[in-house]
Specification:
Chain lengths: 100, 100
């Protein structure tokens, strides 16, 4: 097999990260709230450590959990990653508009 | 700054890949159809080279282009990546169910 492209590596990473955290307890195909908090505090610590409001992860989990089953499935997890990517992309565009 | 986590690297990659292909012609914040085809044939060649139907990229572009402006914005591009990740994740789950 040839070397994976950047996009293929990224798809692989998203699956691997989801499986790593969703496999910690209970249902392997879902992130429980404890697993979600563990994911956020480890993988996105740059985001969580600047949050002064202790309720922010609670509210994020509720907002992401579209079917309100108290768990995040892979689609709900991807909505989080997509939302963060869009926020970063918008911030980048804004910064480049200011610069030029 | 500390080393980025796998999730942070992935978000960064998604933005970098989108900017690389959307910057090839015209509007820098949108993938034109030519740019989309170039992205698919380069980054996801493992998928496109097995497609015998020449109309498949045409139909994918139409389906992804939610606002029908003939271009894919970053959100529409992320829907493609998300869709592919979910298909891979489902295939993986199916394969592991068969195995055990």
């Amino acid at each position: 097999m040839s070397k994976p492209t950047e996009t293929e590596r990224c798809i692989e990473s998203l699956i691997a990260v989801f499986q790593k955290y969703s496999g910690k307890d209970g249902n392997n195909c879902q992130l429980s709230k404890t697993e979600f908090i563990s994911f956020m505090n480890t993988e996105l610590a740059a985001f969580t450590k600047n949050q002064k409001d202790p309720g922010v992860l609670d509210r994020m989990m509720k907002k992401l959990d579209l079917n309100s089953d108290g768990q995040l499935d892979f689609q709900e997890f991807l909505n989080l990653i997509g939302g963060l990517a869009i926020a970063c992309h918008d911030a980048f565009l804004l910064a480049s508009q200011k610069r030029f």
